[in-house]
Amino acid sequence: MATRTTAHGAAGDDEVAEAAGPTLRHRHGHAGKGAGEAANGGASPEDASVEQVFADKAVPSWREQLTLRALVVSALLAVMFSVIVMKLNLTTGIIPSLNVSAGLLGFFFVRLWTNAFERMGLVGHPFTRQENTVIQTCVVSAYGIAFSGGFGSYLFGMSDTIAKQATEANDPWNIKEPHLGWMIGFLFLVSFIGIFALVPMRKIMIVDYKLTYPSGTATAYLINGFHTPEGAKLAKKQVKILGRYFMVSFFWGFFQWFFSGGDDCGFKNFPTLGLEAYKNRFYFDFSPTYIGVGMICPHIVNVSVMLGGIISWGIMWPLIGKKKGSWYPASLPESSLHGLQAYRVFISIALILGDGLYNFVKVLIRTIAGFISMVHKNSKAMLPVSDNGSPTAEAMSFDDERRTELFLKDQIPMAVAYGGYAVVASISIGTLPQIFPQLKWYYILVAYVVAPVLAFCNAYGSGLTDWSLASTYGKLAIFVFGAWAGLANGGVLVGLAACGVMMSIVSTASDLMQDFKTGYLTLASPKSMFISQVIGTSMGCVISPCVFWLFYKAFSDIGISGSEYPAPYAIVYRNMAILGVDGFNTLPKNCLTLCYIFFAAAIAINLIRDLTPHKFSRFIPLPMAMAIPFYIGSYFAIDMFLGSFILFVWEKVNKAKADAFGPAVASGLICGDGIWTLPQSILALAKVNPPICMKFLTRGDNVKVDKFLGG
């Protein structure tokens, strides 16, 4: 790979920059815009000969790729990352790509396993990039359930905790309390069907149409890089950095815990910008997690989140608050959805829907145009591979020939794909109404008839742009199926459950295609990829509900606005379902007008971004990112902005090292703080409370407290 140097080329920087290629590509590969450029960076002469580097290494069979150590390591990492994603889900809903840290830790743990066996005089199988790919696929599919399972959105949105805040449609027919048993059963019923949906299309999408799948491509470069001498050397340094910041973050969380012995106590409620700013949720909460998230997310995302916080909590909500008694009754509490809270929630929803609708239409148009272009192109020229899998007369590089040969070698029988889809769909149609009596069997049948088409559109669009619109398809299901059922027939619950069905199918199918692309580029067998996806999904269907249940039982205020775990998207998704069945009749004065304005603004901003040259459009904010703090506040936005600023300065001082070690530092901060949540939850379940409450008061309140205590 091309060597990268910086203006401050300290000794060893060139070596770091050269080995950092895979990590750098992967870090930006999930960012959507620009991801294609990152993945296409593989077209350089050095990258084109990657398989010649591994030419002397035998490719293990698909059974040899599925090792015991790979599954054990996958299970450990699945638990770890499920906890982290669950915490992110229940705090802000912002989930960065954790594939770099999953890849690094998978590589590290297997190396640790191998070295331990060698010290005991036992010789095991060599650690191959194919086995590494299996681990990556298994872990990502497992912790992906923590997101697509809806624990911070549609699933938790069914609960009584969220329904009480929504004030509408909070009757028993539209509520289902979380319980470990039905959540595990529900996930097993809806999470596997997407795996079978697009298996027959893998050759067309990966080999014939050569779709990029930037995240899958970037992951492959990461894994291929680990298994070269230079990449292995860099990976060891990255793991050491990750471990160092993991420990710092973990013990910082432990230290903070001692001062959080009461409501609004501790460093998380430190009024760093003053008490007035604190009341408007502007403060730095000393969260290593979101500093790390800010280092991983692109700078424009962090700036957009910060801008959204300033517009909402800095300007809009204080101004609307002054209209109390005019726009909404003055007697209502701040949390009522007939008062100020309605503006926060529904304007946020308007931005999300405007952004989602625009990108849905854009990706759909690109998908259709790209598909037509591919068909037209292939009708004029021979496909790269003929129907029987043998190369055609068209010239192929050594890499492409080698990868295509092995990719088509281990076929997944069509009977497995079609039969699996039919069996799982039949079981779901018969069983899901037992979990949700409001969800009639014919709703599910319609969803499963439509789902493969939507899954193909999403997977094809993801292959072109790296944008998965699974949550957008889920929101469409909320409105369609909720309105079909009607409020009196449990339409809110129907909409949320249908969202789960659709989102799981579309998301899983797209993820599988990304995994197939990774396997294609690392010579991993499609069979091993398919099986590891099934195993990882099975792990996730058990691990994620258990992790959520731990949070749910340990923290009594989970899902409450203003708490440590407000689950902001749960109330958003529930209110979308209410809108779908009940309309806009209950909104306070001028709320609907503001929603229309922000919905149109989201579309207009996206349109301007797409029509403006890149050198200008990269400075235009993202409406979806701006919407996040509208409801929950700006405290995490300050953390993310600080993380982004740290990385920006680091890149200016030494870009090579920032590119190589920035993701490792960020991952360490996220993982350490996330894993601290486990012992914190156990302490809460054991009724062990922090010994100190550190709280900040105004001078006047402090005088009153002193007088009271002195009296």
TrEMBL record:
Sorted UniProt keywords: Membrane, Transmembrane, Transmembrane helix, Transport
Transmembrane segment boundaries: 66-88, 94-113, 134-156, 180-201, 241-259, 290-315, 412-435, 441-464, 476-509, 529-552, 591-608, 628-650
Compartment(s) of residence: Membrane
Topology term for the membrane: Multi-pass membrane protein
GO molecular function, one term: oligopeptide transmembrane transporter activity
Major subcellular site: membrane
Pfam families: OPT
Family in the record: Belongs to the YSL (TC 2.A.67.2) family.
Protein name: Metal-nicotianamine transporter YSL12
